[in-house]
Design brief:
Blueprint lengths: L4 H6 L5 H9 L19 H10 L8 E6 L4 H14 L4 E4 L11 E3 L2 E2 L2 H21 L7 H15 L4 E5 L16 E4 L7 H4 L3 H8 L8 E4 L4 H13 L4 E3 L4 E9 L2 E8 L4 E5 L4 H19 L6 H9 L8 E5 L2 E4 L5 H14 L5 E5 L7 H9 L4 E4 L10 H10 L4 E3 L3 H11 L5 E5 L2 H12 L6
Parallel strand pairs: 1-5, 1-6, 2-5, 6-7, 7-8, 13-17, 14-15, 14-17, 15-16
Antiparallel strand pairs: 2-3, 3-4, 9-10, 10-11, 12-13
Helix pairs in contact: 2-5, 4-10, 4-11, 5-6, 8-9, 12-13, 13-14
Length: 456
């Protein structure tokens, strides 16, 4: 039904802009928080139908599958970085993107080219439209199609490994057609409660849905009720479980605004390592990454100590505790739930000293804004509410009502660039500005302050 992929790219009728329009024209659940998370709306059979029609490109390479609430992307980037350092062709699929759809699909750290993106989209268009016209299992969505595009690209580039981040949840996610070598579950907290469930147990059950029979599972330290769900699922499927914090331990040994050093010990061996990412939680993510890599070594991967050192040291993951300016200190972090925001504030206290703290805050409407307002209440003297450029962004009027109910005085400025400029105008050199509440807001702040050539 489709041309061979190489021929399709050579003969593509689409350009990159047209490929974007094709994707955006499909049903996009990322833009809505009102779609029920059930097998009717998220029916994996249509993903299996699509992939089966193109010879199942997701098979045939070693795979790491990653879910969780916080840290999925950075953990994936670390694993991919080490595999690349070990000279393996490694595909990395993450979401959401910050500036370009191409960011979601990368090979050895380099995003897919516009030509390849357009060619793969073009090779799928007729098949996707045919499946959607029949809609036996519902219509293919934007995320499902770009997931298939990633699998096709990694096959086309002969990737030896693919590191795949779950989009949302796990059990019904489009990526859950995989049978991976190792499953990684990062820290789980309350998020997407309108979709995944209102309790930690419900959310954990959805995340644990990626666990496959006999597949080794690496889990971050979890709340007691979350750990119980994961342990039960692993027993049911006879999946070996390794718990970071119990089977593998880490200890921070130093750090600066340029990164952190830590020691790692346990089944993963003994390592002295460093990462350029700030935030205490990134050490936990690094421990998860190294543990997953050791399982790959056990399964035949040739990864040396030096590869781990080099891969971790060179990892990049923007808009997560990213320093955008030094005087005043400006930090952008995409924390979007109370737990993540608490971790960011805790890490700021460990790494930096400042006179006064101000926050530029924007959030998606479906997040626990009230909980984040309560976290921020005791931290800052000034909050500027703004609206990220995303369809699900909460309006500043709605944010204002929630923050005032929590007893937090605020200023409204719907335009993010003006909100950031206002915070900078009021700040002294010894002050801190934290831009947070939304990954899209944090990414936009980086674009505003870095790409326009403003001094940092």
């Amino acid at each position: 039904m489709c041309l061979p992929l190489g021929d399709a790219i050579m003969q593509t009728a689409m350009n990159y802009s047209q490929a974007e329009k094709f994707l955006i024209g499909l049903t996009d659940y990322e833009k809505s928080s009102s779609v029920l998370y059930n097998a009717g709306n998220y029916d994996l059979r249509r993903m299996e139908l699509l992939l089966g029609s193109i010879a199942n490109p997701h098979r045939g390479r070693r795979t790491v599958h990653i879910t969780g609430t916080k840290g999925k992307g950075s953990t994936a980037a670390m694993i991919s970085g080490v595999l690349s350092a070990a000279k393996y062709r490694t595909g990395l699929f993450t979401s959401p993107h910050l500036h370009s759809w191409r960011e979601r699909i990368a090979l050895n750290g380099t995003p897919i080219t516009k030509k390849d993106f357009a060619g793969i989209a073009d090779s799928l268009e007729l098949l996707v439209r045919s499946i959607n016209s029949e809609a036996r299992f519902g219509k293919l969505t934007t995320f499902e199609v770009i997931t298939a595009m990633a699998f096709l690209y990694f096959e086309m580039k002969n990737a030896a490994y693919q590191v795949i981040e779950v989009g949302m949840g796990g059990r019904l996610d489009a990526t859950n057609v995989l049978y991976p070598d190792v499953c990684v579950i990062t820290s789980i907290s309350l998020d997407h409660t309108q979709i995944l469930g209102e309790t930690l147990e419900q959310i954990a059950a959805e995340k644990a849905g990626i666990i496959k029979r006999g597949c080794t599972v690496i889990s971050a330290p979890q709340e007691r009720q979350v750990a119980a769900v994961i342990e039960r699922k692993c027993r049911e499927l006879k999946a070996p479980l390794i718990m970071v914090g119990k089977d593998i331990k880490w200890r921070r040994t130093g750090g600066s605004p340029d990164g952190q050093n830590f020691k790692l010990s346990g089944m993963a061996g003994n390592y002295d390592l460093g990462i350029p990412l700030l935030g205490e939680y990134q050490l936990e993510n690094a421990a998860l990454a190294v543990s997953a890599l050791k399982i790959l070594v056990k399964n035949g991967a040739a990864i040396e100590y030096a590869d781990i050192v080099r891969g971790l040291r060179n990892v990049k993951w923007p808009a997560r505790f990213q320093i955008l300016k030094n005087s005043p200190l400006v930090i952008a972090d995409g924390a979007h739930n109370p737990y993540s925001l608490t971790q960011v504030i805790r890490s700021i206290g460990k790494f930096f000293s400042y006179k006064k703290a101000a926050v530029v805050f924007g959030s998606s409407a479906d997040k626990d804004i009230r909980g984040m307002a309560q976290v921020l209440a005791g931290f800052v003297h000034r909050i500027i509410l703004t609206q990220a450029h995303h369809p699900r962004a909460a309006t500043t009027d709605n944010l204002e009502r929630i923050f005032k109910a929590a007893g937090v005085p605020v200023i409204k400025e719907p335009d993010p660039e003006k909100a950031i400029a206002g915070a900078l105008a009021e700040a002294d050199k010894e002050d801190l500005i934290l831009i947070t509440g939304s990954l899209f807001l944090a990414a936009g702040a980086a674009e505003i302050l870095l790409k326009k050539g403003r001094p940092i």
